[in-house]
Amino acid sequence: MSKIRFGIELPNTMPWPELRAAALAMDKQRWRGLWTYDHLMPCTAEELPLIVNSVQECEEGPIFEGWSLLAALASITERVRLGTMVTSATMRHPALLCKIAITVDHISSGRVNLGLGTGWHEHEHQAFGIRLGGLKTRCDRFEESAALINRLLNGPCPVTWEGKFFHLEEAPFAPAPIQKPLPLLLAGGGEKRILPTVAKYGNGCNLYVNMFSSLEEAKHKLEVLQRLCEENGRDFAQIRKTVTMYADIIDDEQEAHRFRRFMGQHLYDEEADALPFGSPQRIIDSIEPLVNLGIDEVIFNGPYPSPERLARLDSEVLSAFD
């Protein structure tokens, strides 16, 4: 069984000095993945209750562009891998997205992951005049984007492409990425469209969020992905499996219980009570079943990750998996 790795999603809403301090701290600790997200406006308070208390405060709050942050963070770190969790397939032409990712790959000396999702934030797309489309359109665009990105990152140049959404005609495309391959990580667990796209074009997947799905669901999705990989002649073992975990150390158990119920408002009480907010051992106990499932990386999400919070997670949780 391979050793599990740990990453954390740094909120694009953090001030730059705090982002910089967090990244430098991570680079010296056990963390192996530093992730940003790809939004032009923050999520609503209902979707991100950890950060703000009102929808207006959240939607009108400051937020940095994710790939620009990765380029800056790549220049000040040496070891930790970098990626988007995730880039929306609606935001950029795949050729531009690949060019950005390859640029960051060179800045980082080969440490970037390209995370891609279908896109979902309706208000954001309306506000900025970006077409989102219905579920089928989003999945169609996502699949073609993944196929074209795979071709641009790994195929010969120049590139000609005639698809439903994108067109390239003898397009030059250099330099190539440093990594071979530059990992394309596809987010979501949909069995009809997302997982088949992973099996065809992806180097990794993010298929489980502990706030919204169960361990049993994750196990089932891995079984489906393994079957799809076999059908497509792909080695399932070479697909990097990641999950997102909302978690944090909270020393006061009464406060931890209140926070679990707050964060698990949409869950059954017993599911909310199981959320990993509390003692380090509670978080460790939540990770161990993921290790047994064969998960390669747990990506933490939660309150603003100060250097002090990162250090505690590193020494009191991550160290248990050395």
Protein architecture, described:
- The protein has 322 residues and is an alpha/beta fold.
- It has one domain: Alpha-Beta Barrel (TIM Barrel), CATH 3.20.20.30.
- The protein has twelve helices and 13 strands.
- The strands form three sheets. An eight-stranded parallel β-barrel has the order 1-2-3-5-8-9-10-13, surrounded by five helices. Strands 6-7 form a two-stranded antiparallel sheet.
- Helix 4 crosses helix 6, helix 6 packs parallel to helix 7 and helix 7 crosses helix 8.
- The chain is globular and about 60 Å long.
- About 4% of the residues have low confidence.
Characteristics:
single chain; 322 residues; alpha/beta; TIM Barrel; eight-stranded parallel beta barrel; two-stranded antiparallel ribbon; 42% helix
Report the uncertain regions.
45-57
- Give the overall average pLDDT: 92
Question: Which second-level CATH architecture applies?
Answer: Alpha-Beta Barrel
Distance between the amino and carboxyl termini: 13 Å
Q: Can you tell me the overall shape?
A: globular
Q: Name the CATH superfamily assignment.
A: Luciferase-like domain
Strand content: 15-25%
Note the run of SSEs as H and E: EHEHHEEHEHHEEEHEHEEHHEHEH
Tell me the radius of gyration: 19 Å
Q: Based on helices, strands and strand pairing, what is the structural class?
A: alpha/beta
- What is the CATH topology classification name? TIM Barrel
| Helix fraction by DSSP (H/I, runs of at least 4) | 40-55%
The tally of strands reads 13
